[in-house]
Design brief:
Helices cover about 40% and strands about 15% of the residues. Strands 1-9-8-7-6-5-2-3-4 form a 9-stranded mixed sheet, with helices on both faces. Helix 4 links the parallel strand 6 and strand 7. Helix 2 packs parallel to helix 3. The longest helix is centred in the middle third of the chain and has 23 residues. It is globular, with a radius of gyration of 19 Å. GO terms for molecular function: oxidoreductase activity. Belongs to the short-chain dehydrogenases/reductases (SDR) family.
Amino acid sequence: MAEFVIKDEDLNGLKGKVVIVTGTSSGIGLATANLLLSLGASVVGGDIQPSATPESTPNWLFVQTNVTVWTDLSNLFKKAKEHFGRIDHVYANAGIGPRANYLALETDANGELKEPTFETLDVNLKSVMNTATLAVHYIKQQPEGGSVVLMGSSTGLQPLRAPDYSTAKHGVLGFGRGYGRLVQVAGLPIRINTLMPSWTSSNILPNLDGMMQGISHEAQPGLVVARCVAYLMSDTSKHGEAIYVSDGKYKEIEKAVLSPTFKTSILGEGNPNDDEILERMLALGK
């Protein structure tokens, strides 16, 4: 696994850039917004909760946003473009914890079984996909392009006894891998990367830090993840990466682990992968 270090000088490419970050009122989103501002970027934050960043900061714009509502998300991008004139990078970060109960179904007033909630999937997967789609729409208008960072989780790499949360994070990884490939094939100057952090101080679960202390496991600070966001935006060579973040360490897993393992241990040498087969099928239709 390719482990790497992020130095302060690796984050110098963001001065004067305009960055949209969702979920900026707490946790990793707030840490990221503050870091980006300190690096000289202009930041547009979107969150359903009120802003936690001083409104007097000239390079900061907050737009109250429910990321599960398309018109809210669209308005966030529209306001960013109107205020700063451009959008260079986007971090689709907003998220919530598990919500659905798949073992004990609730009933309505008539005693009928109720469908489990899809709230976590709507916030943690659907809104990430919509945010990324809007990002590409705006960024591709600039010849120099830009980048999109997707908020996944280490839980998207392993079994987790919270199926809705796990499914959403597995989905983010799949979306990032597929969307990155699609953008590349389309020849767009846009980079798509995915973060897969382990337990991090946030509001995902009530009293998360307290519970971590109770089990003698320390959650990493949000700044550790924020630095990786800034790094992926700054380094123009980074595209199609999936980065595992844990205990302050960064490990590239897409190109170092996932793709090579599938190619050598599952697919077998000499066999075309599914994307190559799809490419041939699409060529037949032209």
